[in-house]
């Protein structure tokens, strides 16, 4: 459980930091490729009753900086997790 929590925290931090770096690099001519992003969405439909409207779907936008930071976070996890968390000792 501790390992899963550590990986989740590292990946979420990488996504947030990568989004921040991607937004900063958007205006730079040399690093604008880090801000290149792709969106994926799925919108199957909406249920509309008089009182309530429910929309089902999701949307994901990811940029190059986020991908790089996710790979770095996973690499760091596999390097530091065995040293930080020892199960059963």
List keywords for this structure.
89 residues; alpha+beta; two-stranded antiparallel sheet; 2 helices
Folded structure, characterized:
By secondary structure, this protein is of the alpha+beta class. The protein is built from 2 helices and 2 strands. Strands 1-2 form a two-stranded antiparallel ribbon. β1 (37-48) and β2 form a beta hairpin. α1 (2-25) runs antiparallel to α2. The protein is flat. The relative contact order is 0.22.
Please state roughly what percent of the residues sit in beta strands, choosing from under 5%, 5-15%, 15-25%, 25-35%, 35-45% or over 45%.
Answer: 25-35%
Reading the helices and strands in chain order gives HEEH
Distance between the termini: 15 Å
| Mean pLDDT figure | 89
Molecular shape: flat
Number of helices: 2
Give, in spatial order, the strands making up the sheet with the most strands: 1-2
- Spans where pLDDT lies below 50 across 5 or more residues: none
Structural class: alpha+beta
Total beta-strand segments:
2
Helical percentage: 40-55%
What radius of gyration results from the CA coordinates? 19 Å
Q: Main sheet, how many strands, which sense, barrel?
A: 2 strands, antiparallel
